[in-house]
Structure formats: C-alpha cells, structure tokens
C-alpha cells in the first residue's frame, strides 16, 4: 500500500477502521486462534550498535549484564519447556551486529537451530545483519523465519540508530528472502516518531515482495540508561489499536504480533487489539530483557475470549527467487 492509502485508512473514524480490519482478518484467518511464541535471548548484552532504545548496547549503562552465548543444552531445556507450555514458535535473539560464516559462534548457532527444529516447532532467529551465505546456511539448518525489524520510517531512523543504515536493514531482509526464509518484520511505537512515520514504516513493510509472514508491533519499554529511557511519552492506547488495524489491512496474510510493551496492556486493550487483527503474542515470563505477562494469565484471557492456541505452521508457502523491494 502507498503512504496515501495508509493515511486514508488510518484516518477513518475509529469504528469504521475496526470494521474494515475485522473483515480483512476474518477473510484470511477464519479460526479463533492466536499463535503463542516464546522468545529467548541466547546471547545478551555487549552489542556494539547504538540503538537508542536498547538495553543491550555496550554504549549505555543499564541493568543488563553482558553474557556469552548460552550452551546448547540450556537452550534446548528452555525450548522443550516452551513446547510443553503450548508455544509453537521458538524465537532466539542474540545481541550482535551480525554473524559471519566460518566463525565459532555462527557454527554454534547452526547447531542450536538444528536441534530446536527437530522438536517440531517453528524456529525464528534474530542475529543482526546477514549476508547471502549466512542466510542460506540458516535456512538449511531449519530456520523458518528471520526477524529483522525496520523499527520506524526511513526518515526517522537516523534519529534512533547511527551505527548502521536503513538500507543495511533492507539488505538483510533481501538476503533472507533470497535464501527462502520467511521474514518477520515490524517496528516500535514510541520512539519519538509521529503518525506519518508509523505509516511510512508500514508502507515499507507492506511493499516487501513477498510480504512478511509476521509483523511484530512493539511499544517502547523505556530502559533507564538508554537515550530513550525517560524522554518519550507513552503511546496512546487508541493509536496502538489503530496501528494493529492498519497492519492487518496492509499485510492481510501476516500474523500480527503483540510484542514488547504488552505487559502494560490491560486485558481490555489486548482484546481490542485481537479484534483489530492481532493473532500472535510472545508468551512466557520474559521478552529478551523486559517482562512479559505470565503464561497462565495469557491462557486465561484466551479462554475468556473463546480463542485457542494456533498449531505450528511450518508448511507455509516460502519465498523463492523474489527479493524484498520497497
């Protein structure tokens, strides 16, 4: 969709927007299902990047300590526990600028992916920048989707990160799609951006070819010690719902995921987001380095709403030769 189309969609009266989003959702997602995902930080802190919202940057003084890559046996224990608790997607994040083939840590990640994939779960990784060969190796090891968020609009991005460019993000996404992996790509609300920035972010995402298989919508969790730790006002709840609705309309076949910031959402707000088109959540105690609602509370809410966990979806259509375009 173009920015102008997204702007017209967003600016509709609230209930008209929800009506349109719900119709799109019901056309493409006929079951009352929510995908349950578990996100594990397999290598925390010490990142060389300067993302101004991130507690894992080595440039800032936060409560997050730098840790080495977790042992495979410890990761497998967490993956098996996640599967036993109902998660069908296991996402692994590492605080790196990127990974390179031929390094010890990349070989370790490949081993980890192979073992997690053998559990029958969807496997998603987020490891920073990827080149073509690294992307191909991850696909061969069993990665079903690669997360690489664009965060915000191209125009606002330099205000948030200076150690890499927006084009660097897009190049990694192109490499992921060329390798045949699906793309998980979304953004963060509350980075000091305006509504136009948010819609321009969705313009970029909705024009990937093929579109992402999942779109995480994060709300900033301010981390003391980071540049955005205390300088940004919270995002209005109605704006969050509007962004969920526009994401559903602009990327109709994607799983739209309520991600960071959900711990601050009431059950009523989450319900409104589900109605507007969200159908995926991070499930468990922790989301990388910030808190997440308890699993029991999540399941209780789904039961109240008559919704059920979604089964693993590993046989979806994969991108072949097409590359990401904007």
Largest sheet: 10 strands, parallel
Number of helices: 10
Mean pLDDT: 89
Distance between the termini: 11 Å
The CATH homologous superfamily name equals: Aldolase class I
Q: Give the proportion of residues in helices.
A: 25-40%
Q: Give the domain tally.
A: 1
Rounded Rg: 18 Å
Coarse morphology:
globular
Report the CATH C-level class: Alpha Beta
Q: How many E-type strands?
A: 12
Strand content: 15-25%
Poorly predicted ranges (pLDDT <50, ≥5 residues)? 286-292, 314-326
Looking at the overall shape, the CATH architecture is Alpha-Beta Barrel
CATH topology, anyone? TIM Barrel
Run of helices and strands: HHEHEHEHEHEEHEHEHEEEHE
Quick structural summary:
The chain has helices at 3-10, 14-28, 72-84, 104-117, 132-141, 166-178, 195-206, 237-250, 267-276, 295-305, and strands at 33-43, 89-94, 122-126, 145-147, 182-184, 187-189, 214-219, 255-258, 280-282, 286-287, 290-291, 308-309.
Topology:
Blueprint: H1 3-10, H2 14-28, E1 33-43, H3 72-84, E2 89-94, H4 104-117, E3 122-126, H5 132-141, E4 145-147, H6 166-178, E5 182-184, E6 187-189, H7 195-206, E7 214-219, H8 237-250, E8 255-258, H9 267-276, E9 280-282, E10 286-287, E11 290-291, H10 295-305, E12 308-309
Parallel strand pairs: 1-2, 1-9, 1-12, 2-3, 3-4, 4-5, 6-7, 7-8, 8-9
Antiparallel strand pairs: 10-11
Helix pairs in contact: 1-7, 2-8, 3-4, 4-5, 5-6, 7-8, 8-9
List keywords for this structure.
326 residues, alpha/beta, TIM Barrel, ten-stranded parallel beta sheet, two-stranded antiparallel ribbon, 12 strands, disordered C terminus
């Amino acid at each position: 969709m173009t920015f102008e189309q997204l702007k017209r969609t967003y600016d509709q009266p609230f209930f008209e927007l929800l009506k349109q989003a719900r119709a799109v959702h019901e056309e493409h997602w006929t079951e009352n299902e929510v995908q349950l995902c578990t996100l594990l930080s397999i290598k925390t802190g010490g990142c060389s990047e300067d993302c101004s919202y991130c507690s894992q940057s080595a440039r800032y003084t936060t409560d997050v300590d730098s840790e080495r890559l977790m042992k495979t046996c410890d990761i497998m224990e967490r993956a098996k526990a996640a599967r036993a608790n109902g998660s069908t997607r296991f996402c692994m994040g590492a605080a790196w600028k990127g990974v390179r083939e031929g390094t010890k840590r990349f070989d370790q990640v490949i081993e980890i992916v192979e073992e997690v994939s053998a559990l029958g779960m969807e496997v998603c990784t987020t490891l920073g920048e990827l080149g073509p060969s690294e992307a191909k190796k991850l696909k061969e090891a069993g990665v079903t989707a690669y997360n690489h968020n664009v965060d915000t609009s191209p125009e606002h991005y330099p205000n948030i990160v200076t150690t890499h460019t927006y084009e660097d993000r897009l190049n990694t996404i192109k490499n992921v799609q060329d390798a045949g992996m699906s793309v998980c790509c979304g953004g963060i609300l509350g980075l000091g951006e305006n509504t136009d920035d948010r819609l321009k972010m969705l313009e970029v995402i909705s024009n990937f070819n093929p579109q992402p298989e999942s779109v995480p919508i994060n709300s900033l969790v301010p981390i003391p010690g980071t540049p955005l730790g205390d300088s940004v006002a919270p995002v209005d709840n109605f704006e969050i719902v509007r962004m969920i609705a526009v994401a559903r309309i602009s990327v109709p076949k994607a799983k739209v995921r309520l991600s960071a910031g959900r711990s601050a959402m009431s059950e009523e707000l989450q319900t409104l987001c589900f109605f507007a088109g969200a159908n995926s959540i991070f499930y468990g105690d922790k989301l990388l380095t910030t808190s997440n609602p308890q699993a029991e509370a999540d399941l209780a809410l789904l039961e109240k709403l008559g919704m059920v966990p979604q089964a693993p979806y590993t046989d979806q259509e994969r991108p072949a030769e097409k590359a990401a375009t904007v």
